[in-house]
Design a protein that fits this description.
Four copies of one chain form a homotetramer.
Chain A (H helix, E strand, L loop, with lengths): L27 E5 L21 H9 L19 H6 L20 H5 L3 E4 L6 E4 L8 H14 L1 E7 L3 H11 L10 E2 L2 E7 L1 H4 L26 E10 L7 E5 H6 L3 H7 L3 E10 L10 E8 L1 E3 L6 E3 L6 E4 L4 H17 L4 E4 L9 E7 L3 E5 L13 E8 L12 H5 L4
Chain lengths: 412, 412, 412, 412
């Protein structure tokens, strides 16, 4: 039990009665799973239309979304049990195509549509100025997939993006993840809501003292974890709420050759953000889904090696003692989080007020963090985004692959 | 969830049926607390008489203990719920007398009974050679209490100790702790069983790779935590199974004056070794009892300051951020565990085979650890002990008290 | 000795001869301090005019700087000995005026000159769009001083800044630091050269694997450490070389009240980046200048408390044991370096090519780091800057001062 | 520079004069290496005969040692320069014979001479009761060598040991190390003095607050590092001054198989305890001798793998980044220092007053630490020992060798 109680499960259990039993009744308890919503935003009621930030409401309604029954929409058929959680997509992403592999390496179709191709740092992050995502064709989307694979994260400002196009682009890049617990745009499962005011239950984010870290990779507990991921902010505070991204290619290149070789071929356990009841041990407390993935993976489009761990979800290296695993993972997390030359910090500010900003990244080769200086007394509570996540391949390590610096012929 | 599963709760829940309810039955589950014994050695069946190690059996039966119905005995009326756990002795140790305060500071009655008074290290540990605990009178016990308060731990070898005298000495020093879950000598609650073969369920201790630490202080979750504690080994392996003790006085003296002042007057949260169900959140997993005690305490008999923390049970410093607390507690644990000049390592070997060894220490001013090189392929499984714990005062910090080195006029 | 030798002193000692002495000559060695330039860029030869990056050359020559004898210029009268190093400005900043205290809190004169006042994150960093530093009057400079004191760092792009104005603004804010070892613009001591190609001796920066950290505060070893500091980049790579800044106000606010109180009133030792010979122990290796400053300081203009430590230069907390100091400083460094809501990352890109970017910050209330993804195979070697540092007050802690969040009435 | 100055070099440089030179004299300094004795106990004057502890004096004079010119004796021809330090035994131990390989595995000759063979813990440490080292023949010494190789450390109490026999036993086990700087018994270089009162310059050991660690392995900077090492205490305080030993076999067995495989075949850098001037960089400060040895070695007599690192002297793993090396070595040091089941704590107390205690261990497969609770206000200053170190083989790793637990068929 954490003494700060930050993760304590909600206390709303509905104790109905004690049942009868031969050996006496005093030890039998009837519990109701339904009322336990501490970890289940899926249970949360939607907000009325009027509570939706203006720019968000305008965008969604412009594209025909019906907000009259509130926003966002809750998923149906919530899984309570761990086995139900595992059963969600317990198989490879079907018919997966790595779009970047089909792309023109020079990306002429995509780049010719841009007013400017602006690298945001030397090794990670590119902004495409003057491109509307709504307008991209499949050839351009293939090139964008390759650009993302190379630059990890790509920014598009001043977007007029429909939720339908948001979903369609995602679907083109792979099966769109539909979360069993998290809310979505009404009628469009897969377009997830990222909205602090709602997700945190209305109030401003509590200011956090102490050393809090939020670096993570999305959905690493999936059989086929998140690949290309598209977050669209349509309601953007004037200041605050940047997102930082870190490159897994560059994190891998920070390691010595012997440490790289030690990690290659090893597997890590990765847990889910949400928790479920263990049907065989209901009283044991909620548990996350845990899946095993290679610690070093090769991106199918670039062929570059990437370090596939993150502080939020990676809980152990298979085969090591727990104390060894802890020391080595802590080092790998710090390499990811403290090497600023491997990172880019992206402001969501549009240059044209009222339009949205899309950031598209590949979760297989990165970590990110939402910098928590929004949704407070200064910035207010307006920040709202939708996310569409395309699931990628089943993570693999290709022993013949190279690190980014090796492949680019850079000094090591 | 720990990926090593070392603390995973037992999976023997008895799911009887689903009950009926207006809103549908699918979310209601009837669970039976009784069958959950993962954390409850109280549920464990006793062993037959023949399985008890020979020396132990001889001693217990010599003093009239009936082993015909097995050994050890389980407690009755097991508490399942956290509130029941808290309710066990939720009040100060009644009529507590600090025996050491009444003692002759020169301890003439006690020392004159000893063949030799042998200090085992400069600052902690004394062996009294040639003394039988069975023979000590109250005047001598008072002096022993003071000796323990000063030297932290005192050793008596070649003991012929009756379980009854074991209990009586304990009762003289304070209310004897009767654990609601842990087994005891048949007919004598309060004489706790410390027996790896039984407590670990029979097999040899699994060899542990990795960095395992076992330093702890007993029963710090009590309202009045453990004071004078008397462990008697009556079945002793020829080699292995030493116990190391570390002095809280000396640990405090290792801190700089400013850090001492920072810690004085602060409180820490201390959890129990056993866990219980939270009646208001049964599905939240088991939880320990947690009690708040001063981080620096003053021993009533010596008036010396002692550092009252231990890695196994101290989970936070009140008022600090969790990240701050973690860093400072980790340092304090290491000061306790790594400062060998603050420690003594005690072998239980008797010089006369067949007799037992008693070690008596004060848990208020110490940590200890059983060194896990017994109960394996080399040593066999014979180690058995009984423990009697006298609860002490409610821990307090006296702002006018001194550190041990200050009080003794030693260089700082 | 570090096995990586990264800081090993240069090996160019000129051993002339052995001298004569009564007790035999074999142990006497004559050494020449002059040739030891490992730590002394002051000894470095300047580059020819043609090696200076084009934009830098154009700017400097436009404003009358004579580059015909090379660039940059070396200081004269290099100090070799520690006592000489200490003697440089071994007194408070003379006639210091805290300009921000005289400013209009609303900063109307300054803001009305700006096309836009753009906060770069909620708590740190502001860009003034459309302002030329060359044009600011004293009233505006006073307001700028206050803005810097509040926002920690202020950005001006598209600047046409003369070196003379650069120096004059610095002088207005306090005595301009003239470094005894570091090179400067010819004829203008105090306008320091920040030029990786030159400072690192010409080649590209070596790519660094491993966990390298570069967060620091400038010139904390001074009697009156650096206050307002103005870095002007006139030759800017197309990508790379961002600088991140972290707020000491916000770092202090991340600490719990008890830890804040523990640190307030304490002092830390802060060392210089350069090293000198100890006249009383020449063979003992070079040593830095070390000065004692409060660990928590109060900024004179805002009255807010700030955490005054940095990983590069703060070597200990006075009064603590070394092991305690290490643990606590490590935590404070991480709070500064890992709390992204306390940081801003600034790109130096101008929007008008050929013009420079000025970033002005207050070293008393911040740390910064140059992100090392410039000066490599991709970016080339063109990055060049000049820095003018105004020394501030002698750091003090005002027991009646408040933290930033307290003063602003924000939730804690 | 450490702000605590604990290791600051002595400040007794003899600055004679400035010499003449064409380019001006101001930068030339004549320094006298001879007077720099901070790191050179070799320069220390001996004490008069009367200051030698009584039991030590009696023993040495009984065996013909002349103390009339003081005690101990200083070495001649002190090396000042690093190259001179490296030149001391810069070659394998000549004609080395691993005595344990020739021994009867049952050790019948040795054991039959003992009253009792008493293992002190399950995996490390044996006491041979009733054996006089003075009396052992070569067959018994061979068996003792094997016993040490298996049990790491062996204790002999109540010894009447002559310094000559002390040296002869050492010489039988390998070339006796003669330290170029450390003092020895007059006329007997190689019989080193371990005497806190003298080595620390007379006063009581300063009490140390803070987290101080002293675990180390002797002489790992040698081409052929220390093998069998024999410390004989002839003046023993009544209490205090225990020595703890930790097994490198057992430390290796604590690592997971993958981590073992990562470390096998790698090399570490090991520095000397003493420092020397770098002839090519005299002003760079003193430097230790550094030698490269396998991180995992195989003991030639047992064929068991051992972890060959220690906190005091191992400064890096070859091929890793410094930050990686630091994290992994810190873990390995903690495994050695915190795993109490891998350790034994040995009291030097004789059972017959006036006789000495010998402890013989193998430095290739162990670390040890003198517990610093002697030489203080309570114990006085009488502790004195002599040490004879036999250099072993050049450390090697045999890829076909086994860990101790593997070889013994124990559970893993």
């Amino acid at each position: 039990m954490s003494f700060t109680q930050v993760e304590q499960i909600s206390k709303t259990i509905d104790k109905i009665s004690l049942a009868n039993d031969n050996g006496g009744t005093e030890n039998k308890v009837l519990v109701d799973l339904k009322n336990i919503n501490g970890y289940n935003p899926g249970f949360q009621d939607s907000y009325p239309r009027e509570s939706v930030p203006e720019h968000t409401r305008n965008r969604l309604e412009k594209y025909g979304i019906d907000l009259s029954r509130g926003y966002p929409e809750r998923p149906e058929n919530i899984p309570y049990y761990l086995d139900e959680g595992y059963a969600v997509r317990n198989r490879p992403n079907p018919n997966y195509v790595e779009r970047g592999k089909n792309a023109d390496p020079e990306k002429k179709a995509l780049f010719s549509a841009a007013k400017e191709v602006k690298n945001l740092s030397t090794f990670i992050g590119t902004e495409l100025v003057g491109v509307q995502l709504n307008d991209l064709n499949e050839k351009q989307l293939d090139e964008l997939a390759l650009l993302i694979a190379e630059r990890v994260v790509v920014v598009f400002r001043n977007q007029d993006l429909s939720p339908q196009k948001h979903r369609d682009i995602g679907q083109y890049y792979g099966e769109v993840e539909v979360h069993p617990l998290v809310t979505h745009v009404p009628g469009l499962p897969g377009i997830t809501t990222v909205w602090a005011e709602f997700n945190r239950g209305g109030p401003l984010l509590k200011y956090k003292k102490g050393l809090h870290q939020g670096w993570h990779t999305d959905l690493v507990h999936e059989f086929s974890p998140a690949g290309i991921t598209h977050l669209h902010l349509d309601s953007i505070p004037v200041v605050g709420g940047d997102t930082s991204f870190a490159s897994g290619y560059a994190a891998f290149d920070k390691l010595s050759k012997p440490l790289q070789q030690f990690l290659e071929g090893k597997f890590a356990l990765n847990k889910s953000a949400h928790n479920y009841y263990n049907r065989d041990n209901i009283l044991g407390g909620v548990e996350p889904i845990v899946r095993k993935h290679p610690l070093v993976i090769t991106h199918p489009a670039t062929g570059w090696k990437s370090l596939f761990v993150n502080r939020a979800h990676t809980i152990g290296i298979v085969g090591l003692e727990e104390s060894e695993s802890k020391v080595i993972l802590e080092y790998l997390f710090d390499i990811y989080e403290k090497s600023l030359d491997n990172q880019v910090r992206i402001s969501w500010q549009p240059t044209t007020s009222g339009l949205g900003t899309s950031v598209i990244w590949d979760n297989r080769i990165s970590q990110h963090i939402a910098i928590p200086d929004y949704n407070d007394e200064i910035t207010g509570k307006i920040r709202h985004a939708n996310r569409v996540t395309s699931l990628g391949n089943v993570p693999e390590f290709d022993t013949n692959s190279k690190s980014q610096r090796e492949a680019l012929g850079l000094s090591i």
